[in-house]
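Structure first, sequence second, as always.
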């Protein structure tokens, strides 16, 4: 009986990790794939490796929080499987509404529901976690607005990242020993920019592993049914499987707000979101890339739209470029600057860069998602009585 329940739990963990891999791979590698810098298979392989690295190192701190700090008792195997069910249900609801609800919030909500039903919830820990859920979007918004208003225009002028036709590198066989050389149309600036994009993609994959690996297996680790190292490997395999399969469509359409903004802006968002997520994961706080990514995008667009244009810039024609916000763009037929293309010279108002109603939808789902997860788990565990 125990073996059957454990098997069901492992299958549930794989389902959760599979869906996490499908969404996280697109967020981490969408800009690079969209710019034609690497293939989807290569992106999925890099994603799998760095997710494992993030989960094996920093992710252990988040695992400790989810598995032992939120409630005062160990989660039984049956309860762990039920918690995984509610996490998967939360992901399903998010997919139905087309809103990337942070998995970490859904996970915490399901475990908190169990704690409420059994009277073992650690309110100090929950308060500590929720406070960072409030602060994190503010930090992302502030960083994005600051960069967009004061730093981005100069970065865009100095570090334009473009891709040329043909191979990035070629093999020079003129000498006795073959050597790597630049492709026929490759510049050193393009090579440097490509390396930067790949490094940042690996960094974001590491951050995704640190925050998301525990979400897929922490309930089973808390029950003692799985050892931590084994659980991390199972979660990594599941996330990697999602990266090699359903994430291919996500990467093709670059199914996140990073898809229809300039590559430089996408890199700024990726660096900001990954740094915030990695630091908070290191502190043991369950957090998600989605939350900081979306709010950094909004802040970057608002900062650029509200940047004052000096007389010197106006005379020289150095006005700030347009930033289209993908799913956050106000009008569906608004002009978009695709990845790797030059930006236009048009300066838009803040209202043209994102739809406030879309932001309200995202933030509302961030509140509704974990709240529903908590209520459903509380009702289930109260009625069934397992813990």
């Amino acid at each position: 009986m125990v073996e059957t329940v454990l098997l069901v739990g492992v299958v549930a963990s794989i389902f959760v990790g599979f869906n996490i891999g499908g969404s996280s791979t697109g967020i981490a590698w969408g800009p690079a794939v969209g710019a034609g810098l690497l293939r989807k298979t290569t992106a999925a392989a890099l994603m799998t490796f760095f997710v494992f690295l993030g989960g094996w190192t920093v992710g252990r701190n988040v695992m400790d929080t989810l598995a032992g700090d939120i409630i005062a008792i160990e989660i039984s195997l049956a309860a762990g499987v039920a918690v995984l069910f509610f996490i998967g249900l939360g992901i399903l609801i998010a997919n139905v509404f087309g809103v990337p609800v942070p998995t970490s919030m859904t996970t915490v909500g399901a475990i908190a529901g169990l704690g409420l039903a059994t009277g073992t919830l650690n309110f100090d820990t929950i308060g500590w976690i929720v406070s960072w859920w409030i602060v994190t979007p503010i930090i992302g918004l502030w960083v994005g607005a600051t960069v967009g208003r004061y730093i981005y225009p100069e970065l865009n002028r100095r570090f334009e990242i473009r891709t040329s036709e043909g191979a990035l590198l070629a093999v020079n066989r003129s000498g006795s020993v073959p050597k790597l050389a630049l492709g026929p149309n490759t510049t050193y600036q393009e090579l440097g920019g490509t390396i930067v994009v790949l490094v940042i993609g690996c960094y974001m994959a590491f951050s995704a592993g640190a925050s998301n690996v525990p979400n897929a297996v922490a309930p089973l680790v808390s029950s003692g049914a799985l050892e931590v190292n084994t659980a991390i490997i199972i979660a990594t395999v599941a996330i990697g499987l999602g990266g090699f399969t359903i994430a291919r469509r996500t990467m093709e359409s670059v199914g996140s707000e990073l898809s229809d903004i300039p590559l430089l802006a996408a890199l700024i968002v990726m660096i900001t979101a990954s740094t915030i997520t990695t630091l908070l994961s290191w502190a043991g706080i369950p957090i998600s890339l989605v939350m900081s990514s979306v709010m950094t995008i909004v802040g970057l667009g608002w900062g650029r739209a509200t940047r004052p244009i000096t007389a010197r810039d106006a005379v020289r024609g150095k006005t700030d470029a347009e930033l289209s916000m993908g799913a956050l763009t106000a009008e569906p037929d608004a002009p978009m600057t695709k990845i790797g293309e030059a930006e236009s010279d048009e300066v838009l108002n803040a209202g043209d860069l994102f739809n406030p109603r879309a932001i309200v939808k995202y933030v509302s789902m961030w509140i509704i998602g974990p709240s529903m997860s908590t209520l459903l788990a509380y009702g289930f565990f109260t009625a069934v009585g397992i813990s």
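Margin note: The beta strands are 169-172, 179-182.
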